[in-house]
Structure formats: structure tokens, C-alpha cells
Amino acid sequence: MTRIVNAFSRVSPRPLRNTFSTALRSVSELEVIAYCIETDDGIQAWGESVETPAITGDTNVAIQNALAKEIPMALIGTEFHSARATWNSAISPLDVVASAKAAVDLALYDLEAQLAEVSMNTLLGCKVESVATDVTVPIASLSEIESLVSIRLAEGFSSYKVKLGMEDLTLSLEKLLLIRSLIGNDSGLRVDANQAWSVEHSIEFLQSSSDLNIEYLEQPIISANKRGLAIISKASDTKIMADESCFTMGDMNELIDLGSADLVNLKVLKSGGITPLLEIAQRAEQAGMGISIGSMMEGDRGVTVASILAGALAPTLVHDLDAAWWAKESTIKYSDGRVWLL
Ligand SMILES: [Mg+2]
Fold first, then answer.
1. How many CA atoms lie within 13 A of 141 on its CB side?
2. What is the C-alpha end-to-end distance of the chain, expressed in Å?
3. If exposure means fewest CB atoms within 10 Å of the residue's CB, which of 47, 52, 216, 330 is most exposed?
4. For the segment 144-186, what is each residue's pLDDT rounded down to a tens digit?
5. Are residues 250 and 235 in the same domain?
6. Domain check: are 111 and 197 in the same one?
């Protein structure tokens, strides 16, 4: 029998190679909050979180307060049997931010893997050594695009997620045409507007971009408007992906009921941990919705777990796992458009 006897967090800076700009935010350095739980048999297990106030609403203060107060109060002294059991009984009922729940859930899975003497890959059912990922082209002016794309081409990426904001439609199309000419017809091109557009603008964009072979349009409109997302989906043959519209199982159910999206981008920090993410992924699959695993701009632990989940749930798809590539320093290796799990 293993008992959790202590927990603490540690914050460290993570500078990025360039500023990461989307319609929601610009970030050039992260503060990674590592979270450690200790057991009575001397095991230390680690999880991790970052603040993403513009996306989840969760701030550093809220995450660290939860990790210092409510979560240890619920956790310390409990017997550990499995990550899922502890998450469901002790963590899920807490009224704290999802990004704090995610940090402790990663630590719980690390503990389960250590106790079972298996790797996280084995524990989560990932049988592949690498997973294909896109690379983000952040919001940029037309004149900046060529150099941004050449760096990514030189590093072997073959799928491009282009961030666009609200701007003249012709300018967006000009940018995408330029990117398509640089990456060629065999590379993947996907667009993420991070909620910046209206329903009308989204439909107009999809009608005018049919020659560009866009794989999917991600979260074009404000997250709460799932009905609007359904209108866009029905108006176009291009696939629509929900991201900020899908945090919880309630969101997932609503997206399915309304027919809002063909695909959903799942992230551990949005759903509050591995346990709830796996449940939401299962629901999506039952409904015939395609899943993609992504991450926030976060630390190596978070990106590694996201990559393992991608390899376990959908090993043949191209996911959204480039966050560690953005860091000035990372132990995660990218090559040939893939993130390596070795
Ligand atoms: Mg997104």
C-alpha cells in the first residue's frame, strides 16, 4: 500500500526562440509550474502546468494557490491505487482551476508508472516511437512569412498550422497562397483563427480558399457559439475543428448534438488531466469525430505526455505537438516532421 505524504511545486522560466503570436495572445517566455507528489515509500512523481489566461482563464496565481492549498488537502494522507481512482475521488470534485488539476493528474500517472515499473508510454498504451506533428506559423505580416516558413522547412516539417487573426480576407488568402507556394502541394496546411472571426467571415473564407487544399479550419469563431460552428460546418466541405469550444465532456456532448465540428483538438490543460481527456476522447470517437492531440506552449513534461497520448489514441494522424520546438532549450527531439518519444 502506498500513501501520498507530501506535495510541493517549483516554478522555472522557459524562454521561447521567438514570440508565439495568435489571435488570443503573444508569448515569449513561459513560467513552467512543476508539481511533485511524494509517497511514504520515498517515490517522487512529477506533473506540470502553465498558465494560459487568454485560453483557459487560469492564471499562475490560481494554479499555484490550488497546488498549495486545496489539492494537498485532498491528497495528502490518501492511499494510492491508480491515477484514475485518485483523480475521480480526490481531485475531480475540487472547485479549482483545470490547469492545477492537470498538473496533479500528470504526477498521479507518473506515480502509477513508477509503481508498476513501466514507462509512461506503456502505461498509456502508446506503441509508436514517434508521432507526426504540425508546426505553427504564428500571426505575421506578409513580408515575414517567407523567412518563418523557410526555417520550418529546413527543420523537416511537412505540416503547417497557420495562425490568422481578423484582417482583410484578401490579405489572409495572399498569406496562405504564399505559404502554399513555399511548402508545395504535398505538405499539410491547416488554419487556426483562435476565435477571431465571425460566422460570415468564416464561410466567406472557406468559399474563397477552396483551391488551397486546406485540411481543416480550427476554431474560427468565439468558443461559446457552438451553434455558429455548426452553421459553418454545414456550409463547407472543408473540415472544421473545435479547440477552445471543447474543454469538458459537457462541451463535447454539445458539439456532437449540434454537429458543430468534424474534428476536435484535445489538450490535457483544457480538460484538467489525462483521466478526463481520455473520457472525452472516447466520447468523440464513439460519435465518429476525429481527434487531434495538442498542447499549450508548455514544458517538456506536458508536451511529452501529449505526444504519448497522441501515439496511443491516434498514432497515424498529424497532431499539434510543436510546443517544445518553440523553446530555446528542450530535451524533446523533432525531425522529419515528427516528435520522438524515445
Ligand atoms: Mg487551436
1. 2
2. 31
3. 330
4. 999 999 999 999 999 999 999 999 999 999 999 999 999 999 9
5. yes
6. no
Last residue of a domain, one of 50, 84, 117: 117
Ligand 1 mean position, distance from CA 192 (Å): 6
Residue 2 has pLDDT above 90, yes or no: yes
How far apart, in Å, are the Cα atoms of 67 and each of 51, 99, 147, 220, 247?
13, 10, 41, 33, 20
Mean pLDDT, rounded, of the chain: 97
Q: Ligand 1 centroid vs 331 CA: distance in angstroms? A: 24
143 shares its domain with 95: no
Kindly indicate the confidence band of residue 1, based on its pLDDT and cuts at 50, 70 and 90.
confident
Cβ contact 111:86 at 8 Å: no
DSSP assignment of 319-334 equals EB--GGGGBSS-S--E
Q: Are residues 107 and 186 in the same domain?
A: no
Query: Stretch 71-81: mean pLDDT, rounded?
Result: 97
- How far is the centre of ligand 1, averaged over its atoms, from the C-alpha of 189 (Å)? 14
Determine the distance separating the centroid of ligand 1 and the alpha carbon of 266, expressed in angstroms.
9
Domain harbouring 164, CATH code? 3.20.20.120
Q: List the domain range (segments joined by +) for residue 92.
A: 2-117
By annotation, the residues acting in catalysis are: 163, 267
Asked whether the predicted pLDDT for residue 117 surpasses 90, the reply is yes
Work out how many domains the chain is built from and give that number: 2
Residue type, 268: V
Q: How confident is the model at residue 63 (pLDDT cuts 50, 70, 90)?
A: very high
- CATH number for the domain including 52? 3.30.390.10
Say how far apart CA 337 and CA 285 lie, in whole Å: 25
Choosing from 75, 93, 117, the residue where a domain stops is 117
Domain co-membership, 166 together with 27: no
Q: E strand or H helix at 234, and its extent?
A: helix 226-235
Please give the Cα distance from 176 to 182 (Å, whole number): 10
Cα(220) to centroid of ligand 1, in Å? 9
- Per the CB < 8 A criterion, the answer to whether 282 and 244 are in contact is no
Residue 208 is predicted with a pLDDT of: 97
